[in-house]
């Protein structure tokens, strides 16, 4: 109608051509086709949260520690995200990560195949972040990490999902003394058998605002214990860095069928992490060295208690294992990401455990780098 009005007022046919050209905003080169099923990905907008990049991603395990960061990263670049959850109240906070209608909650049951099909039938990318640190009466490690991953992979293969990304764990091995790590390795095996092009991600222990690592050290004042005399070697990694890597895998075709091991830039002994926490929190944070035999016996007794989520014999086995890096494995460097050094930003996460009298005092080792903006809490 705008073109006809302009033509009537001016009386020249050239105006119609100009108006028609100005309203054209999409061309054939704006359409991308997925390699697996040939479906078009139509982009709208200039990029960012209020645009649409054409991708629809389903995130299983979205309500966990890592999941909320992954959903936020995906939604920020215009991905429509289906947040598969078991309780709508637990995923409610994720809806504000994206624009209106871009974050869609759907309920599922890992043992209900129909609910899994409903969660993935519109998606071209699926992330499996489901994991448990302890077993329950309803779900064992194998139920969640092995059989659950296999069931998800089968549903995705049948639904024509273009990309499947399985989050496992560093040190996952079928020969591991830990049942948790054996089940993780078995899940990797099942996924690769069903979807050979699936991407496997093995992060080390992750730290962040809602972690069970730094927060546990700061909160459990007077209740800490050493396993292996605190000499276990670990490479803690930022959850935001891992989420950034998973976000890149959404569109990076070079990651298809590959295995990535994501770990921090520096190796620590567990007792060094406690020393760092003492320096920043300015508290004694006493630790009780308990022999491995004694702590395993205590863990065995506590594991028989109902609703025990604190310690188990399998957890003790994991706490005794050093982080082992597979030679030649792909890492952050292959994704052009420089992982964050824990010492430079630890004050952001441990300052809240200080008393009011020393809350504002700087931390000498990391304060200078923190002030330079090395780490961005809001990306």
UniProtKB/TrEMBL annotation:
CDD domains, A to Z: NDUFA9_like_SDR_a
Pfam families: NAD_binding_10 (PF13460)
Top-level taxon in the UniProt lineage: Eukaryota
InterPro entries: ComplexI_NDUFA9_subunit (IPR051207), NAD(P)-bd_dom (IPR016040), NAD(P)-bd_dom_sf (IPR036291)
Segments forming domain NAD(P)-binding: 61-206
Protein name, entry field: NAD(P)-binding domain-containing protein
Organism this protein belongs to: Mucor flavus
